[in-house]
Amino acid sequence: MTTPEWHQAVDDSDFVVLQQVRDLWAAVDPPPAGLVDWVRFAMEPTTPEAEVLKMSGRRELAAARGDEHTRSITFDGTALTVIITLTPAAEDAVRVDGWITPPSALHVELRTSQGTLSGTSDERGRFAFDQVCCGLVQLIVRHNGDTLTPSIVV
Description:
By secondary structure, the chain is of the alpha+beta class. It has a single domain (about 40-154), classed as Immunoglobulin-like. It is built from three helices and eleven strands; from the N terminus they run H-H-H-E-E-E-E-E-E-E-E-E-E-E. It is elongated, with a radius of gyration of 22 Å. The chain starts with a helix and ends with a strand.
């Protein structure tokens, strides 16, 4: 196999220029702090047969108190739909209320950067997690295998 003509023309000075371009971009548009940790979190392996729900709706809800920002997010899959509502609970925490349809008692986990919170939905499909630290989270529902949401920031 022969070396392509363009490759033969690349020398050490080209690599110096490429490094200077990389340094320039790192200075003027650096990657966000924590990006590597977020990517590792989002790509943490789950079972190969896990279904990832699709985010199908997101909206801001009217809050009971003046400056609270409550959000509702809907995730749809082939067998389940999960709706979560995020309500500010403290300075850097939210309350996560959720509903699973069709309703049933299922094991529910909320992966956070501080660890995994576990619970069970009731027979109506309702579940809740209090004082969830703000940051990247992912919901996992154990239903004939794993069903999980994409990672989201709360």
